[in-house]
């Protein structure tokens, strides 16, 4: 929930798994969040990145490398 100024007022905002679209709960201690950096044509990091959130179910099924 946001107030009139646009600030988040919720204490916990749940994430969704990038591979399965499942909700990552606060008790999923096996979940990870990975930031993959963007490179330019010369292979130099541009300062931008894409974030992937993976739930513990995906990691337990050894599907992490297939989902990224």
UniProtKB/TrEMBL annotation:
The keyword DNA-binding does not apply. Transmembrane segments: none annotated. Gene3D superfamilies: 3.30.1230.20. It comes from the Eukaryota. Keywords: Ribonucleoprotein, Ribosomal protein. Pfam families: Ribosomal_S21e. GO terms for biological process: translation. GO terms for molecular function: structural constituent of ribosome. This is 40S ribosomal protein S21-2-like isoform X4. The gene is LOC104598979.
């Amino acid at each position: 929930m946001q107030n009139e100024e646009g600030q988040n007022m919720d204490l916990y905002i749940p994430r969704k798994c990038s591979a399965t679209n499942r909700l990552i709960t606060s008790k999923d201690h096996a979940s990870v969040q990975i930031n993959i950096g963007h490179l330019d044509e010369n292979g130099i990091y541009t300062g931008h990145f894409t974030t992937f959130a993976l739930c513990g179910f995906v990691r337990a099924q050894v599907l992490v490398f297939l989902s990224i």
